[in-house]
Specification:
Shape: globular
Strand order of the largest sheet: 1-2
Number of helices: 3
Helix content: 40-55%
Largest sheet: 2 strands, parallel
Distance between the termini: 23 Å
Structural class: alpha/beta
């Protein structure tokens, strides 16, 4: 089973479109399979993203968290790097960081 978790700052029509497009891309690559699920969590505060991810991992009993890290430029990388760093220091589960 594979669960895709998408984090958004807030629920907006644009964010909904991004999430829908992500799901379509994954389905076009992997095919329509019953063992693939998509979930979305929201948080306005970037400082609690890692905590929300931890909660999801605990609730879902997932075996591994794979996260993508895109090179978005120095300023945006600081924010995403903080989440990645916090998760790598505190996660009680295997963490795979995919540099894209």
């Amino acid at each position: 089973e594979v669960n895709f978790l998408h984090i958004s700052k807030q629920k907006t029509p644009v964010g909904d479109d991004v999430f829908k497009t992500l799901k379509e891309e994954i389905h076009s690559y992997l095919g329509e399979k019953e063992n693939i699920t998509f979930e979305r969590i929201y948080s306005e505060d970037p400082e609690i993203f890692a905590g929300r991810i931890d909660e999801y991992m605990d609730d879902s009993k997932a075996d591994l968290l794979a996260i993508t890290f895109y090179d978005r430029g120095p300023l945006r990388n600081i924010f995403h790097g903080i989440i990645t760093k916090e998760l790598s220091e505190t996660a009680g589960y295997p963490l795979l960081v995919l540099h894209v």
